[in-house]
Amino acid sequence: MSLAVRDSATMLRRNLLHARRYPSLTLNLLLTPIMLLLLFVYIFGDTMSAGIGGGSGADRSVYIAYIVPGLLLMTIGSTTIGTAVSVSNDMTEGIIARFRTMAIHRGSVIIGHVIGSVLQSIISVVLVGAVAVAIGFRSTDATVLEWLAAFGLLVLFATALTWIAVGMGLVSPNVEAASNNAMPLILLPLLSSAFVPVDAMPGWFQPIAEYQPFTPAIETLRGLLLGTGIGNNGWLAVVWCLGLAVLGYFWSTSKFNDDPK
Q: pTM for the full model?
């Protein structure tokens, strides 16, 4: 156990150093939710807020409060694309083959990637959240307990998506394929309740938006941050997160432990 912890900490430090020395990928992925936030607030904000308010008038602050939770989870999806690329880069450059010959805990390599990615995801969420606060987002009705639950949900969601991203990176033949394979992690929020309510979508499209991991997580985070009810979305979000984390863990460890051909 001490060997696993020590080696995992070393691999975590390695990944954080890489992120610090080559920040362009993280910054590029971080720009996507920030640009969407500014676009939907300042270009579409009045129109969208009037629609959400049932046509009772434009109130941009209402729409800011509505879309920020979805964009925070989209930020996590964007960050984990970088994880898939980083893992694929390690696999294709040969450093993993070198690690296999060294006396280190085998699982520490992907554990370092996972912990590093979760930390980067939370930092990215904080940055996007700061931009949201700067343009008018407020969470005055949430209690301290709801804030803690919201933070826990963000960490759990980041962990689940990171394990899936690691698996995508391991099965990709190159970094370009890894980036393409991980694109659903940023596209799924666009097909959820992040920007408009599910019941405002066409009837044939509503099941697509409703029965996917992002929608219950977004509704739960929205309820926690705004101090409103979350209904069944809370336990659905937790089930999705745990299911994806377990699936990603076994998928990633299985592919990583395969002997190289």
A: 0.89
